[in-house]
Design goal:
The chain has about 300 residues and is α+β, with helices and mostly antiparallel strands. It has helices at about 10-100, 105-140, 150-160, 165-170, 185-205, 235-240, 260-270; strands at about 145-150, 170-175, 180-185, 210-215, 220-225, 275-280, 285-295.
C-alpha cells in the first residue's frame, strides 16, 4: 500500500511563492526602515552642521564687533590723550615762564598769560568730566530714572553756570519755551543740555546769538539749540557721533574738541528713549534738535 505524499509539487510551489513574497516584503521593509533611519541621521547631521555654522557666524560677528569696538575706543582714547596733552603742555610752559619772568612782565601781559592758563584748565576740566560720564555709561553704571523736568529752570541754571564763556564771546542767549516739561532722567538730561549749549556758544562767532527753543512736535517735546557759527557741510554732519572720527578735523572753527560730548548726548538721549537730529547751513548756523517724552 502506497502513501500519498503529504506535500505535492503544487503545494511546495505555493509555499515557496508565498515565502518569496514575504521575504520580498520583509526586504522592502528593511530597505524602507534603513532609508528612513538614514534620512533622520542625515537630517540630524545637517541640523548640527547648520547650528555649528550659525554659532561660527555669531562668533565671527562678535569677534569683528569686538575688534571694531576696541579699534574705535583706541582711536577715541588717542584723540582724548592728544587733547588732554595740549592744555597741560600749555599750563606747564606758561607756569614755568611766569616763574622765570614774573618780575620782568607788565601786569597786562601777566593777565593775558593767566587768562590763557584758565582757558586750558576749563578745556581740560570739560574733557575730563565728559570722559568720566562716558566711562560710566560704557560700564552701565548710569541708571535712567525718569522724572518730570522743568526745561526752563534747568536751562537757566546751565546758562548761569556758563556766564564767563558767554561774556567772553559776548553771546546773547535767547530762549523761548513754548512747552516746558519733559519726562527724562535729570542727570543725563542736564549733561545733554550743558554739552549742546556749551558747543553752541563755543562754535558761534563773537557778538552773536544762541537760541534755545522748546515746543511740542508730533507727540514729542523737541528742544532746539541753534548757534550762529560757521555751520557744517553735509559730509561733516555724517561724521558727527562717530568715535572713530577726529572731530577736530571737522569744520574751520578754532574752538574744537574730541566730539566726546556729542557722543554722550547721543547715548544719553537714546537711553531716555529720545532721538537727536542735526541741521546746518554752511557759513551760517547749526541746529541740534533733541526729542524727549512729553511730561504733560
Amino acid at each position: 500500500m502506497f502513501f500519498e505524499p503529504l506535500f505535492t509539487h503544487a503545494t511546495w510551489d505555493i509555499a515557496f511563492y508565498f515565502n518569496s513574497i514575504a521575504l520580498f516584503i520583509l526586504l522592502l521593509f528593511i530597505i524602507f526602515f534603513y532609508e528612513k533611519m538614514l534620512k533622520i541621521y542625515i537630517d540630524q547631521i545637517n541640523n548640527k552642521k547648520n547650528e555649528l555654522e550659525l554659532v561660527n557666524y555669531k562668533l565671527n560677528a562678535s569677534r569683528n564687533q569686538l575688534k571694531q569696538s576696541n579699534d574705535t575706543k583706541n582711536k577715541l582714547f588717542s584723540i582724548i590723550a592728544h587733547d588732554l596733552k595740549n592744555p597741560f603742555s600749555i599750563l606747564y610752559s606758561l607756569s614755568n615762564f611766569l616763574v622765570d619772568k614774573y618780575t620782568d612782565l607788565n601786569e597786562d601781559y601777566k593777565i593775558q598769560i593767566i587768562d590763557t592758563m584758565k582757558r586750558a584748565i576749563v578745556s581740560s576740566n570739560e574733557l575730563v568730566e565728559n570722559l568720566l560720564n562716558w566711562s560710566l555709561s560704557q560700564s552701565n553704571k548710569i541708571s535712567i530714572k525718569k522724572i518730570t523736568i522743568n526745561i526752563c529752570e534747568l536751562t537757566n541754571d546751565i546758562i548761569e553756570s556758563l556766564k564767563a564763556l558767554i561774556k567772553e564771546k559776548n553771546i546773547e542767549i535767547s530762549t523761548n519755551f513754548l512747552h516746558n516739561y519733559v519726562f527724562a532722567d535729570i542727570y543725563t538730561f542736564s549733561i545733554i543740555m550743558r554739552n549742546l549749549i556749551t558747543n553752541a556758544i563755543k562754535f558761534s562767532d563773537n557778538d552773536n546769538e544762541v537760541s534755545i527753543v522748546s515746543e511740542k512736535d508730533d507727540g514729542w517735546v523737541r528742544i532746539d539749540i541753534i548757534d550762529s557759527g560757521i555751520g557744517l557741510s553735509r559730509e561733516d554732519i555724517k561724521k558727527l557721533f562717530r568715535p572713530d572720527i577726529d572731530i577736530s578735523k571737522i569744520g574751520k572753527s578754532k574752538d574744537k574738541g574730541t566730539g566726546l560730548g556729542l557722543l554722550l548726548c547721543k547715548e544719553f538721549v537714546e537711553a531716555n528713549g529720545g532721538m537727536i537730529k542735526v541741521e546746518s547751513t554752511l557759513h551760517k548756523s547749526t541746529r541740534f534738535s533733541v526729542y524727549f517724552e512729553n511730561a504733560s
